Structures are given as structure tokens and as C-alpha cells.
Amino acid sequence: MKKVFNVLIVLLCLSFLFSITGCDSEDTDNTITIIDMEGTSVTIPNNVSRVACISQSATDLMIAFGLGDKIVGTYRSFTYNPWTKIIYPKCAEYKAYSYSVSAETLLADGIDLVIIQNTENAEAFRNVGLPVIAVHQYSPTGAFDDEIYDIARIISEVFPEIKDKADAWIKEVEDTITEIESEIGTTNTDKDIYYINGEKQKGLYYSDGGNSMISMILNIANVNLATEKYEVLNVHNVSDEEMLNLNPYAMLIGGAYQNYLSDLLDESPVWSNLDCVKNNRVYRIPVAMIAIENVGAETPVMLKYTASLFNQEYQYDIINGIKENIKKYFNYDLSDSDVNNMIQGLDKNGNRMVNIE
After folding, report:
1. What's the pTM?
2. Do the beta carbons of residue 301 and residue 321 sit within 8 Å?
3. Within-domain flag for 190
4. Of 114, 135, 164, which marks where a domain is finished?
């Protein structure tokens, strides 16, 4: 009888141990751990369904990879762009979030993951149990290089069902860079290009600095970002005097506000006398689902377009390039008229994309 009792005790103990192991396995199976672009380890549920995607780049790529239904809200600048609702009509349903959106708002919206480009309020989100993944258009540690692939990589880790699509996009970008470098070489010239970020209405001085996406794009095109020496987040403090000293070879203007910025350029007694303005070397950056100088499905187009601007030996048909890209990633057919408007920063009817009172 004693032996039977001891056997029962052993069986009960084993049963208890197996149940504990089963619970641990179940908990592990219900979460995954992601390393974000700041190097932070983030534990998230493995069945994310409601995302606050407060990053234009992450929003663009999520839609391109077939995850648009999981987005509840996006960064408000994304909603300024009328092309988004035409190319992907569900965008009209997205809430417009600012970087300073409150944790209470996100909780009320039933968010189970926050992807954000500005992490100033990330701690407040985490304090109420919201997992936060940081993504950027710049590298916090050095030259923006392989970071160009990080947003796609992170999205595919959160949503492994789209890994093949993310990997295909990564390969397309890699192949594009290889093709450009094989045709134009990799020797940087002394041509400095000033970039105006027209995503927001911050004037002619809102640009980017070193270790940024735009810096990488220009380096691949064998030119240099004029503001390379400045810190990424403080370039908009460039003065008129500094601009005259920079006196860039050419200028790129992007974003939804680019037409207003072009007006400011013509009206400025300082900027209108820059060599690049007087010699008609001011170029627009097309706006598709996002301003294409940002990391996104359109990145191969931006790389080829920029290379063609500053290297005569590199030819690129920007109109067909945009049409093919939007069809491939968003399954929408653009007309030539549509693309010509995109290239000029205009909406489908040829009007300015945003109105300023």
C-alpha cells in the first residue's frame, strides 16, 4: 500500500510539473520579442490586430505588404496626402494621430501595438501596458546604412505571414542600390545638395542632417547632403548666413507643402540668389503614398530618380517607374496625368495637396 501511495505522489508531482511547463510554453507562445531601431527589446502579443502606426514609413510598408486592415490610426501628416485615399481607400478610415497622442486615447481605441517615429511619449505608453516599437528615418548610432531595411524587418517579425513580401522588397532595394553603383560608381563628387523637408509647414530651414535616409540616398547618387555636418534633429535652425555659405549645387524639395515652399524660395531675397536657384537646379521630389524620400515601398523609385538627376549616364523613366511601383505594391493603376501631378506635388485634380489659410 505504501508503494502505491508513493507512486501516486510521484505521478501527482510529475503532473504538476508538466502543467507548469505547459503554462510557461503557452505564455511564450502568446508573445514575441522584437528589437526595435533604438535597440530596445519589446515584448508584444503574437496576434496583434489593432496598430497605432504613428510613422508614415511603417504605414506605407504595412499597406504595401497587405496589412492595411490592422491599422487603426496613422501619423497625421499621412492623412494630409489626398493620394492615399485614392490609391488605398481604407486610408479614409484611419484616425490621425500626432506624436503627442495620449495613452488614454490609444487605450480607448483598443490599440495593442504602437509603432512610432518620435518616441518622446513612449514611456507613458509603456506605463499603461502598451508595447511600443521605435522606427526612424535616421540612425542613432552611425551612418544610415542597413537601417533602411529595419522597418520592413520589424514588420515581418511582428507579422510573420508577410515575411516573403518584406524579403522581396528588401531584395528589390538591395538590387536597386547594386544596379546604381555598378552604373555610376561610388566616388563621391564635391556637389552638395540642400534638402527641404516639406512634410510640415516649417519653412525653408527644415531639413535633415547626417546619418539620415536622405543622406544615404544622396550618397548613393554620388552627391552629398549639404547639411551632413548637422545633427539630424536640429537642422531646421540653419540661418540665412549659413545658407549663403553652404551655397549648394542643387536643391531638393519634398513633401505635401512643397509648392508653398517653392513660393517662399522665389520670394526670399537671400534664397532666390543662391546659385542653384538662379541656374534652375531646384528639383521636386514626387509624392506618392508618402513623400518618396522616406523609407517606403517607393524607395527603389526615389533611389533611381535621384541617381538620374545628378548623373547623366544614368537614365530613368520616372513616370513609368512610379506607375509600376504603385501597381506592384498597392494594386492601383495610375494614369500619366496622375504621375505628372505627383511629380509636381499636386493632387489628382492638379491642385495643391494642402491648403494654407
Report:
1. 0.89
2. yes
3. yes
4. 164
* DSSP structural state of residue 285: P
CA 130 to chain centre: 21
d(CA 289, CA 71): 15
Instruction: Please check whether residue 16 lies inside any domain of the structure.
Output: no
Q: Which of 39, 43, 74, 52 is nearest to 157 (CA)?
A: 43
Look up residue 23 and give its three cell numbers.
503554462
The helix (H) or strand (E) run that includes residue 180 is: helix 163-184
Name the packing angle between helices 56-64 and 163-184 (round to 10°): 110
Is 198 found in the same domain as 322? yes
- pLDDT tens column, 205-227: 899 988 999 999 999 999 999 99
Please name the residues in contact with 13: beta carbons below 8 A apart, sequence gap of 6 or more: none
- Amino acid at residue number 258: Q
Domain contains 50 = yes
State the greatest distance between any 2 C-alpha atoms of the chain, in Å, as a whole number: 103
| Same domain flag for 81 and 199 | no
Cell of 206: 527644415
Residue-number span of the structural domain to which 50 is assigned: 33-164
Element (H, E) at 264: helix 258-267
Looking up cell 552611425, which residue turns up?
Answer: 142
**Of the candidates 206, 209, 236, 218, the residue with the CA atom closest to the CA atom of residue 137:** 209
Q: Which residue has the cell 511564450?
A: 28
In the block, residue with C-alpha cell 542597413 = 146
The answer to whether 97 and 59 have CB atoms below 8 angstroms apart is no
| Count of domains forming the chain | 2
Contact 159, 67 (CB under 8 A): yes
In one-letter notation, the amino acid at residue 24 is D
Residue 90 belongs to domain with CATH number? 3.40.50.1980
Q: Which of 135, 164, 193 is the last residue of a domain?
A: 164
Q: Are 99 and 177 in a shared domain?
A: no
Position 99 in a domain: yes
Instruction: Give the tens place of pLDDT for each residue, 108-165.
Output: 999 999 999 988 889 999 999 999 999 999 887 777 889 999 999 999 999 999 999 9
Residue 274, φ and ψ in degrees, nearest 5: -65, 145
